[in-house]
Amino acid sequence: NVAIYQGERWFFHLCDTEEQLKSITVLQLKQKIAEKIDDPLARGRPDGFRLTFKDEVLVDNKLLSDYGIVNMSVVMVILRLVGGGGGGPHTWKGDDAMGDKDKNRSMEKLASF
Hints:
Residues 88-113 are annotated as: Disordered. Residues 25-84 form the Ubiquitin-like domain. InterPro entries: Ubiquitin-like_dom (IPR000626), Ubiquitin-like_domsf (IPR029071). It contains three helices and five strands, in the order E-E-H-H-E-E-E-H. By secondary structure, the chain is an alpha+beta fold. Strands 2-1-5-3-4 form a five-stranded mixed beta sheet, with helices on one face. A hairpin with a 2-residue loop joins strand 3 and strand 4.
């Protein structure tokens, strides 16, 4: 399989036959990519990026074959952005966050800006 990350094409050997490829999950491919990716927030973390194929986001527990992915299919790697209020592992947790429980304190800081 081929994954494209920042314009680079990466080739991954996942199995030896098309029949074996039918049992490979999206998560297994993401684990291979996570070993190679050079972004510090995504390296070794399959949850640090998403994969797309033919404009469809791939779901971790589905099989590659569920999406029609075969040998030499091109899969796109999309890094997840830090922040955005999604509650992910890198979400800001500081006292100055606008999402804090004490909205008045945040508004006071904003007003004094």
